[in-house]
Specification:
about 160 residues; alpha/beta; Oxidized Rhodanese, domain 1; five-stranded parallel beta sheet; two-stranded antiparallel sheet; 6 helices; about 10% strand; globular
Length: about 160
Amino acid sequence: MLLLAAALAFAAPQDPPANPQIDYAGFAALTRDVRALRARRLLPFDRFQASAAEKGTLLLDARSKDAFARGHLAGAINLPLTDFTAESLAAAIGPDRERRVLIYCNNNFSNHRAPVPLKSAPLALNIQTFINLVGYGYANVWELADIVDFDDPRVGWVTG
């Protein structure tokens, strides 16, 4: 019983927040609100490739600069998730918040080796990237749904 009380005390939300620049409740609400949108924005590989080829579409790789330099999908630009700010996103995507942005990440590849090691499924970068882009006001985000092999020539993998 004492252990349960200690766990509940630890899990209880802080009121007021210890740091007004960190809003876990806001993140949880954003995550909840984005879930249905993301479910409708998953593209099979063929549609993802066709969309990437359309004028005005941006293919965004949010992995680290090092991972991107070692390999990425042809035509992708790199902006690591850790570098997302309103300013960096506007510089990378442009002023049009309705611009179509396609995303992919490590867990879209079956290779499970550098530069795309498999991440824990609940922590896949796709999820965080999608939530962040929508949270920053980019509503036209689409995500690769499939798992592909970067050694398959149809994938269009570029090595650094």
